[in-house]
Write a structure and sequence with these properties.
Blueprint lengths: L2 H9 L13 H29 L11 H25 L3 H15 L1 H9 L4 H25 L8
Helix pairs in contact: 2-3, 2-6, 3-4, 3-6, 4-6, 5-6
Length: 154
C-alpha cells in the first residue's frame, strides 16, 4: 500500500466519530434556511448589480429569479445535507467541509465556462461566477457557524 493511501485518512483527520459530533437538528435546519434565504438575496443583489454595471445584460435569462433561485436552492440543500455527513467522519469537520466547498465552487464554474464558450455575454457569465462564490461562502458560514459541529464525546 502506498504511503499516500496510508496517510490519506490522517491527512483528512478522518477519525469517524459516527454521530457523536453532529450539529443539532434544530440549528442545522435554521442554518439551512438562513443559508438559502441569504444566498437567494445575494444572487438577486448580484444580478441587479450586473444589470446596473452592464446595462446590455438586462433581460439576461439567468438573471430571472426563478432561474437562479431554483439552482441556488439545489446547491444549498446539497451542501446542507453534506455538512452532517462530513461531521460523521471527522471531528475536524470545518476544515474538510471548507475544502469540499472550495472544490465544489471551482467545479461549479464549468457550466459558466460552457455557456461563455457558447457565446453568452462575458459580463453576465462573470456575474454568475460571482453568484457561485457568494452562495458557497454564505452556505459554508451559515452551516458551520449557526450549526457547529458538537465536540465528540470520547
Amino acid at each position: 500500500m502506498s504511503s499516500t493511501a496510508v496517510r490519506g485518512p490522517a491527512l483528512l483527520h478522518l477519525d469517524f466519530p459516527w454521530g457523536a459530533a453532529q450539529p443539532s437538528l434544530v440549528r442545522w435546519i435554521v442554518a439551512t434556511v438562513v443559508a438559502l434565504g441569504a444566498s437567494i438575496a445575494a444572487c438577486a443583489a448580484i444580478a441587479a448589480a450586473g444589470i446596473a454595471l452592464f446595462p446590455s445584460t438586462a433581460g439576461y435569462e439567468h438573471y430571472r429569479f426563478e432561474d437562479y433561485a431554483k439552482l441556488t436552492t439545489i446547491g444549498v440543500i446539497v451542501a446542507a445535507i453534506g455538512w452532517p455527513i462530513v461531521t460523521l467522519v471527522t471531528t475536524r469537520a470545518r476544515r474538510l467541509f471548507l475544502w469540499l466547498a472550495i472544490i465544489v465552487t471551482i467545479v461549479s464554474f464549468a457550466p459558466d465556462l460552457w455557456i461563455l464558450r457558447g457565446g453568452q455575454p462575458a459580463p453576465a457569465v462573470a456575474d454568475l461566477a460571482v453568484m457561485h462564490v457568494a452562495v458557497g461562502v454564505i452556505t459554508y458560514l451559515a452551516l458551520v457557524v449557526i450549526a457547529p459541529q458538537r465536540p465528540a464525546l470520547r
